[in-house]
Design brief:
With 441 residues, the chain is α/β, with parallel strands linked by helices. It contains 15 helices and 21 strands. It folds into 3 domains: 86 residues, NAD(P)-binding Rossmann-like Domain (Rossmann fold); 200 residues, 3-Layer(aba) Sandwich (UDP-N-acetylmuramoyl-L-alanine:D-glutamate ligase), CATH 3.40.1190; 133 residues, Protein-Tyrosine Phosphatase, Chain A (Alpha-Beta Complex), CATH 3.90.190.
Length: 441
């Protein structure tokens, strides 16, 4: 019998353990933490036969386990991961395990910015053709029906399509992962605290195409300077003039057909790019543009991504908690025409804030810096004003300063782990602050 160790008791680890038990494997579920973040699910797994152990330290006896499945949050430098490698074990990412157990084809989407929105749009494009499609993967807190990729792979029949957001972190330990269709929305600087360099980060993203062949589809931008054209799969492009899906200021031209921007239920050229990717991916499965557009009409936006959470006295409050790098701040802010009060801060990921500094210097917007790395972020941005201890303090100052016709937006450009469990928790706190403000007299 196959014995597999699984590291982590979050969403990914729980799903992986369940899938392995369903496949008939013995499961050793490990966590370096001393207690579970999801105790009910862990108890359920223990009752189902998993050997659950917390507070795992190294050196550690893996018993007869020959493989270790890791969540994207487990870095290669993790002591448990290093111990497993030293023990001669094969380390698998969650998406590698999902590929092993999946009967249905996988459509994988990654990128620095826009990947969650593009994943939802792709899911809706398939729904427009009434296909059996599952929204899954690293997408979390979107407000749509999402599940981990391993859960979708384990539970879905062969006639389904698994539309999955995947992270660069997933590709540390992929071996045979081969999506039937894959796309990268863009590549800009991010996660240097994990990958070290932009080049290593880009290489991690590009591994999404590594095992694809001519029977598979890759959708790539034709206007991204950090891009290398993959050699194995069929390629379709989006972006500038000459792309298979040209993104214009006033619409999208695809297969000789121009679709007006007014025909989409969202605004912004960045969202037209996301929709172009979705339509190209769906076309790869035979979905006509007309059916894709029918599905895209159901797009309602995502929670924590440019989510309007309150309006009062002409001031609009937007929750963009998923905005976790400086380039995303520029892109999201630039999609709005109003003057903005931007809440920026948290945990810096060793990223370059110079582009954001130039953007703020040339705009009427005001930044409210907060959080653990607020002082260094303030220095990088060259802004005036105080550094607030936390996000709620920054919100109160921004709300007091905002005038009718202006926007207060949470656009952190940073990780959330100084104050919050994750970006979803950060968004929930911000949403609560905004609701309380809008209800006050």
């Amino acid at each position: 019998m196959r014995t597999v160790a699984v590291l982590g008791t979050g969403r990914s680890g729980i799903a992986s353990a369940k899938a392995l038990l369903k496949e008939g494997s013995r499961v050793l579920l490990l966590d370096e933490a001393t207690e579970a973040t999801n105790p009910e699910a862990v108890s359920e797994l223990a009752l189902a036969g998993a050997d659950v152990r917390f507070g795992v330290k190294t050196p550690f006896d893996f018993g007869d386990a020959k493989e270790l499945v890791v969540s994207p949050g487990a870095a290669p430098s993790s002591p448990v991961v290093q111990a497993a490698l030293g023990h001669g074990m094969k380390v698998l990412s969650e998406i590698e395990l999902a590929y092993q157990v999946a009967k249905a084809p996988i459509v994988a989407i990654t990128g620095t910015n826009g990947k969650s929105t593009t994943t939802v749009m792709t899911y809706l494009a398939f729904r427009g053709a009434r296909l059996n499609v599952v929204l899954c993967g690293n997408i979390h807190g979107s407000g749509y029906p999402e599940v981990p990729l391993t859960q979708a792979a384990s539970e879905s029949p062969a006639d389904a399509v698994l539309v999955a957001e995947v992270s660069s972190f997933h590709f540390d330990f992929t071996h045979a992962f081969k999506p039937k269709a894959a796309a990268i929305t863009n590549i800009t600087q991010d996660h240097l605290d994990r990958h070290g360099t932009v080049e290593a980060y880009r290489a991690a993203k590009m591994r999404i195409f590594e095992n694809q062949d001519a029977s598979d589809l890759a959708v790539i931008p034709n206007d991204d300077p950090l891009f290398t054209r993959p050699s194995g799969p069929r390629i379709r492009t989006f972006g500038a003039t000459g792309a298979d899906a040209e993104v214009l200021a006033d619409g999208v031209r695809i297969d000789g057909q121009t679709i007006s921007a007014a025909a989409f239920p969202f605004k912004g050229v960045h969202n037209l790019r996301n929709a172009a990717v979705a339509m190209l991916l769906a076309q790869g499965f035979g979905v006509p543009i007309k059916a894709s557009m029918k599905g895209l009409q159901e797009f309602k936006g995502l929670q924590n991504r440019m989510e309007v959470v309150a309006e009062k006295g002409g001031v609009t409050v937007i929750n963009n908690s998923m905005c976790t790098n400086p380039d995303a701040v520029v892109a999201s802010s630039g999609s709005l025409s109003q003057r903005q009060h931007l809440l920026i801060g948290g945990v810096d990921k060793d990223l370059d804030f110079a582009p954001l500094r130039r953007y703020l210097e040339s705009s009427p917007h005001r930044a409210y810096i907060y959080g653990r790395d607020g002082r260094s972020i303030k220095d990088a941005l060259g802004t005036d004003g105080p550094v607030f201890e936390n996000m709620p303090e920054a919100f109160q100052q921004a709300i007091q300063a905002a005038k009718p016709g202006e926007v207060v937006m949470l656009a952190p450009g940073c990780a959330s782990f100084d104050e919050f469990k994750d970006f979803v928790d950060r968004g929930n706190v911000f949403r609560k602050l905004a609701k309380e403000w809008s209800a006050s007299k």
